[in-house]
Amino acid sequence: QAQLVESGGGSVQSGGSLRLSCAASGVTLSTTSVRWLRQLPGKGREWVAFINPGGVTNYPDFVKGRFTISRDNAKNTVYLQMNNLRPEDTAAYYCHAEPNYYGQGIQVTVSS
Question: What are the angstrom distances between the C-alpha of 97 and each of 8, 46, 59, 83, 85?
Answer without folding.
Answer: 18, 15, 16, 23, 24
